[in-house]
User: What shape does this take?
Amino acid sequence: MAWIVLIISGLLETVWAIALAKSESFSRVVPTVVFAVALVLSMAGLGYALRTIPVGTGYAIWVGIGAVGTAFVGMVALGESTSLPRLLCLLLVISGVVGLKFFH
Assistant: This one.
C-alpha cells in the first residue's frame, strides 16, 4: 500500500507544480487552491509512505515521479521543448526511479 500511496503522491507533486506555475505568483484563485490542496495531499502521502519505505528511496522516487510528470505535462500541454537531449535526460531519471524501486 505504501508504494501505491507514494506513486499517487508523486503524481500530486506534478499537479501542485503545474498549479503553482498557473497561479501566477498566487494571484489566481483556482490554481492557488489546487496548488495548496495538491501540496498538502502530496506531502501527507509522502509522509505515510515513508513510515515503511526508507527515506532515501521514497523521497528520490517521489521527486523523480514529480519531476518527470511535470516535464511531461510541460512538453505535452504547455509547449515546452521536446528535444532529444531533454527526452534522454528524462529517460535517465525514469531509469533511476525504476532502479531504486527494483533494488529496494
Helices lie at 2-22, 29-49, 55-77, 84-102. The chain has a mean pLDDT of 96. The CA atoms of residues 9 and 41 lie 7 Å apart.
